[in-house]
Design brief:
41% helix, alpha+beta, single chain
Length: 76
């Protein structure tokens, strides 16, 4: 299971992580993560132009994507 270590990812604030940090930690592109947020597949919030992903939602999505047989949109 993928988990974020606060020493490695200090960008975790109030159980939210920036799209940039999530992208670098998971190998998903920032554009794809923003698309997931806009479609409601990930929960988060937007502050100005910066999206923040709810950490629990992101970890659940990674687990779900890991079990999926369709790997076209999984981490590369």
């Amino acid at each position: 299971m993928f988990s974020f270590n606060p020493q490695i990812f200090p960008q975790i604030v109030n159980n939210h992580i920036s799209v940039n940090a999530a992208s670098s930690g998971s190998s998903y592109s920032q554009q794809y993560l923003r698309r997931l947020l806009r479609s409601g597949k990930l929960t988060g919030l937007i502050l100005g132009l910066v999206w923040l992903i709810e950490l629990d939602s992101f970890e659940a999505y990674l687990v779900k994507a890991g079990y999926s047989k369709d790997q076209r949109f999984g981490p590369q």
